[in-house]
Write a structure and sequence with these properties.
The complex is a heterodimer. Chain A is α/β, with parallel strands linked by helices. Chain A is built from 13 helices and 16 strands. In chain A, the strands form two sheets. In chain A, strands 1, 2, 3, 4, 5, 14, 15 and 16 form an eight-stranded mixed β-sheet that branches. Chain A has an eight-stranded mixed β-sheet with strand order 6-7-8-9-10-11-12-13. The longest helix of chain B has 39 residues. Classes of the chains: A alpha/beta, B alpha/beta.
């Protein structure tokens, strides 16, 4: 016991001296057979199973149901009174790319300049960031880690929150090309009338930005053709090359637009270049619902726990969007767009449920829907045989704050719930 | 004389007769200080709570408005002990290291929509503070979000006077550099912050001594010239006299101890430590000083001094005997402090009752307004919120928010107003478009004529 306390203390001390590098144990590298029995299992893609059993082995779910044989070599976990869910998925945040927001040296979210399609999140993921254990300890097992800034911010990576190298973490690299669609207003959220001169200036910048974006996409189209034709004397260009999968419709353009007119402009852009697109942010999405429906464009909403953009917006503008999309039959997911508190993703979803979204839909918006939108629903997002064993065990509804996450499995590996926070807690709880 | 008394009585009685009475029935009432009442009623008469108890024990007065709250929860209005809402313009008078003479009350506005949005999250009362750009930022104001009323009615008139101190990265300007050619402002270290505060109180003691001397001379009938009045020194002196409560922004444990030491040396009290993200490291010392703590439940890592912030902070401080509250420092977070309270159950295992206190009676005590607000008790202000469910559940939302017996937010009313506002907006836009078209036509005509 004394030894354990001591090692805990040493670990905490180390974590302070190493600063910004986590000393929390990572995934152990073994994927034995586990069987969780007598639990309420929420496959998400099927009805909840009371008194169910889930078996996973070598990182993959092998059986889910009531009449499930438990293999003799299985490590059996009694799930009485507990619930089993698929690991939650954050459809957009900065986990892995940042450590201390005000310390520039620890932040790798934002590249210089407006057009950075070649910036790729997976290059800068720090597998030993302290944000990773903190996020997964609340049941989030995969996140879309997204670069930000400029007009084209770069390409996101879908990562699982365990692994010793970025490569071990990546579920899908180049998951999407992130475009912050040009806005007519200077500040991202302001919608106040401007002085005439300032208004002109803004309009000029807006047009320039739009032209820049469209020019680059035209160039990328030409580049793609040239590349396909193996044109003679072909000078490779990393920026255009990064855009080729996007203009060819193989990689989604994740376009962030919030006010209705910006979303409308973004839709025109999507039409013009025939992009495979995902709308992101979408704060003022309600007036555009028919347009999105007609084009079958999915939406990543969020953050939900944010103030409405305009003074005269209804107080619940952001809370009520998910219900509206659900009623219209538009596919949507919910992101936190956070970093240190990406762990609060389930509460973003819960707020949508408080404002009209059915509870099971709120859960889907942070499990199977993001998996579908990101094209990985064959691997993650639900508890089904053959899927990756990203599994959480809780003592209740994970969308309720008072619920505790009891176990986390990522890729079938038993992941510690220790974090920098639990270590500091233990250390100072023991202060004489 | 008798006649006057009788008349006064008559006026008083008729005033009572005219007082509006609202009764909320059949609710789960979270009184905060006296447990929870299933199938409970709350009677609001005028601006005060007149009765609270099980439905069976409460009779509905004739003429009362009755709200059937079956399946719903009622709790007192949430109190936010750290707000910058309703401040017109800049929140910092950061030009000097100590600007204790300025007052936030002078720049309050009734037109910041954030106040209404907080009502929609059940928040009714807040401590409105300056920013943290300097070591002593200015005098704060305790107010209620009386949206729609003139701002002169927002402050709680008899609430204690308060002042904001700030320690750490912000007052030492760690995270921004002045433009080229402009020298850095003192202080630039935690050493300097300590010196600013200590020197301010050393000066204030001298100032007090001068006045004492003057008053003593006057008493003795000796000729005396009064010292020159100094607004800053008056403020500092009032802190020493115990007439102004100090609420101090802080993060790291060392600076927390520093402030407690300075206060001890100079003979004043720190009412609360604000943010106090490393409070858990020195909880014993905070408790011993009789100082409260208002903190974020789970913000961390946004700057170096917040890297050791842990969500267990509240639990550890509470268990060490520190009076603790959750606060917002954010117009967004201030809409859901009930949820931050719930997180103290998740992180460190506070009970539901303890959690609810974090955003009600505890901040009321910290602000020195607990005889008026923070719980549902007879005689207290009728600041009452009806929730669709348990406020500690993420699925619950606010139905109706009362301040002093009046409705300041009501969801169904809000939904109705939306339609009306949309029509009004459309009308105005149409009118404006027509006017612009007419003006253009006129200008064209003039040009032709000219």
């Amino acid at each position: 016991m004394a030894k354990r306390v001591l090692s805990c203390f040493v670990a905490a001390l180390l974590s302070m001296t190493l600063y910004a590098q986590s000393v929390i144990p990572n995934n152990p590298g073994v994927k034995p057979t586990f069987a969780i029995r007598n639990a309420t299992i929420y496959p998400v893609t099927a009805a909840p199973i009371p008194n169910g059993t889930i078996v996973f082995s070598r990182g993959v779910i092998t059986a889910v149901g009531t009449n499930v044989a438990v293999p003799s070599d299985a490590i059996v976990i009694d799930g009485s009174g507990l619930s089993v869910y698929p690991g939650l998925i954050d459809a957009g945040d900065k986990v892995g790319l940042t450590e201390i927001s005000s310390v520039a040296g620890t932040v790798d979210t934002t590249e210089v300049g407006d057009l950075n399609p070649n910036a790729r999140a997976e290059i800068a993921i720090n597998p030993h960031s302290n944000l990773i254990p903190v996020t997964r300890a609340n049941g989030i097992t995969a996140v879309l880690s997204v670069p930000e800034g400029g007009i084209i911010s770069g390409q996101s990576a879908l990562i699982q929150l365990a692994g010793w190298t970025p490569a071990e973490m990546v579920i899908k690299s180049n998951a999407g090309m992130h475009i912050r669609f040009p806005r007519l207003r200077s500040a991202p959220l302001a919608d106040q009338p401007q002085e005439e001169e300032a208004e002109k200036e803004l309009r000029k910048t807006y047009t320039k930005d739009l032209d820049k974006l469209r020019d680059l996409f035209r160039d990328a189209q030409a580049y793609a053709k040239a590349a396909a034709a193996h044109a003679h004397r072909f000078n490779r260009d990393t920026i255009l090359e990064a855009l080729v999968p996007v203009v060819e419709g193989r990689e989604p353009a994740m376009i962030e637009a919030n006010l209705a007119r910006d979303i409308r402009a973004a839709l025109e852009f999507i039409d013009e270049f025939k992009l495979k697109a995902i709308l992101v942010g979408a704060q003022d999405v309600k007036p555009l619902v028919p347009e999105l429906k007609r084009r079958n464009i999915p939406v990543i909403l969020g953050p939900i726990l944010e103030l409405p953009p305009r003074e005269d917006d209804p107080y619940d503008l952001l809370f009520a969007n998910a219900a509206a999309l659900h009623e219209a039959g538009i596919k949507f997911a919910i992101r936190s767009n956070d970093d240190h508190n990406a762990r609060n993703l389930p509460y973003h979803a819960a707020f949508c449920a408080a404002f009209g979204l059915p509870k099971d839909e709120a859960l889907k918006a942070i499990t199977i829907y993001p998996a579908q939108i990101l094209g990985v629903d064959d691997r993650i997002g639900s508890l089904e045989t053959g899927k990756i064993a990203n599994i959480i065990v809780t003592d209740g509804d994970p969308l309720e704050i008072v619920t505790n996450v009891k176990r986390v499995f990522i890729g079938g590996e038993d992941i510690t719930l220790q974090t920098r926070h639990t270590q500091l807690y233990e250390k100072f709880k023991a202060r004489p | 004389m008798k006649k006057i008394a009788a008349l006064t009585l008559l006026i008083a009685v008729s005033a009572i007769a005219q007082e509006h009475v609202t009764v909320i029935r059949n609710a789960t009432v979270l009184t905060i200080t006296n447990g929870r009442i299933e199938h409970g009623s709350v009677v609001m008469r005028g601006s005060k709570i007149a009765a609270v108890g099980p439905d069976s024990s409460i009779s509905v007065p004739a003429g009362a408005a009755v709200i059937d709250a079956a399946g719903k929860f009622v709790m007192p209005g949430i109190i936010d002990s750290h707000s910058h809402t309703a401040v017109e313009g800049a929140v910092n008078e950061g030009s000097l290291a100590n600007t204790g003479m300025v007052r936030i009350a002078d720049v309050m506005t009734a037109e910041e929509i954030a106040a209404y949005r907080q009502l929609a999250g059940g928040t009714t009362t807040a401590l409105i503070l300056h920013g943290s750009a300097n070591s002593i930022g200015g005098q704060s104001q305790i107010a209620k979000w009386k949206w729609g009323k003139p701002v002169s009615e927002w402050p709680i008139k008899d609430a204690p006077r308060t002042i904001k101190f700030a320690l750490g990265e912000n007052p030492k300007s760690a995270n921004f550099r002045p433009p080229e050619g402009v020298p850095r402002q003192y202080p630039a270290t935690r050493m300097g912050v300590e010196e600013v505060i200590r020197t301010s109180f050393t000066d204030a003691r001298d100032y007090l001594a001068k006045w004492d001397e003057y008053e003593a001379k006057q008493k003795r009938g000796e000729p005396a010239i009064p010292p020159r009045r100094d607004l800053l020194m008056e403020t500092m002196a009032d802190i020493l006299r115990g007439r102004i409560d100090v609420h101090s922004h802080c993060y790291r444990s060392d600076e927390i101890l520093m402030l407690l030491n300075v206060a001890h040396d100079m003979g004043f009290h720190i009412k609360t430590l604000q943010h106090v993200l490393e409070g858990y490291k020195v909880a014993k010392e905070i408790a011993a000083a009789g100082t409260g703590a208002g903190t974020f439940i789970d913000w961390w890592g946004f700057k170096a001094e917040a890297y050791d912030a842990i969500p267990y902070n509240i639990a550890l401080m509470t268990r060490s005997g520190v009076l603790t509250s959750v606060n917002s420092d954010s117009a967004e977070l201030a809409r859901r402090l009930n949820q931050d309270a719930a997180k103290a159950m998740k992180y460190g295992g506070l009970t539901a009752d303890e959690a609810l206190k974090l955003c009600t009676i505890n901040p009321a005590k910290e602000l020195g307004i607990d005889t008026r607000v923070g719980s549902i008790e007879v005689g207290k202000d009728a600041d009452v919120v009806i929730w669709t469910g348990d406020p500690l559940s993420t699925y619950s939302r606010v139905e109706t928010t009362f301040i002093e017996g009046e409705i300041y937010f009501d969801r169904s009313r809000d939904l109705e107003q939306r339609q009306q506002l949309a029509r009004e907006k459309a009308d105005r836009l149409k009118k404006e478009a027509e006017e612009t078209a007419r003006e253009k036509k006129d200008t064209k005509g003039r040009k032709k004529n000219g």
